Amino acid sequence: MTDTRIGFGFDSHEFKPGVPLHIGGLKLDHPEGLAGHSDGDVLLHAITDALLGAVAAGDIGSFFPPGDPRWKNADSAIFLNLAMEELQNAGYRIVNIDTTLVLAAPKIAPIAGEMRARIADLLCIGIDRVSVKAKTPEGLSLDHVAQCHAVALVERVTDPDELKSMSAVIESQRQLEDVVEDLLSSVHGVPKKRIAPVYDTEDIT
Ligand code: MG
Q: Measured in angstroms, how far is the CA atom of residue 161 from the centroid of ligand 1?
């Protein structure tokens, strides 16, 4: 019998004028963006927590502590990459991801396909394994907030060769992180260091 696990993630960010809007790895044309220490990508943050949760590896705030200048305006693809590495270290791969965004605007349905493609790309899985749904916050009086719920089903990988190839894919994506980290180091004068969990659940990402 296949060893499967499930993970759940939730995130919310407040809309703020004057910042770009990033959702699902896409930059969207909208008068307001989501406030956050990073790029505020509520969808990628919820997926990251779902993946980490599936292998009981902590949460996004435990790896990316609040106030760390390296993650100021960071591309949330970095957080997803870290979650994939944790998943692979635990010996699991993604079966599928399902998500629900809750926000008043912009309308997600017309761009959900593009978001699914981008997330599938970042996770190195087929687009048929990624679902992006959206609802308006009816009756919640939360029109100034974007929320996201995500679940991830994962299964144990038994073939060592497959684990090795997963590792290679994650490593190739990590080059993106190195580029960003180098940029941040040069801007903030912060020396490069390896990300390690500190198990502080506070999260302002
Ligand atoms: Mg967040």
A: 34
List of domains in the chain? 4-187 (3.30.1330.50)
CA of 158 to the centre of ligand 1 (A): 33
Q: What is the DSSP string of 90-121?
A: TTEEEEEEEEEEE-SSS--GGGHHHHHHHHHH
| pTM (two decimals) | 0.84
CA 30 to chain centre: 21
Ligand 1 centre from 160 Cα, in Å? 34
State CA 183 to chain mean position distance: 21
Q: How far is the CA of 56 from the centre of ligand 1 (A)?
A: 19
Q: Ligand 1 centre and the CA of 168: distance in Å?
A: 27
CA–centroid distance, 128 to ligand 1, in Å, is: 25
> What tens digit of pLDDT does each residue of 64-112 get?
876 777 777 788 999 999 999 999 999 999 999 999 999 999 999 999 9
Residues 141-167 have pLDDT tens digits of 999 999 999 999 999 998 878 878 877
Please state whether beta strands 92-102 and 130-135 pair in parallel, antiparallel, or not at all (unpaired). parallel
The string over 121-136, giving b where at least 16 C-beta atoms fall within 10 Å of a residue's C-beta and e elsewhere, is ebbebeeebbbbebee
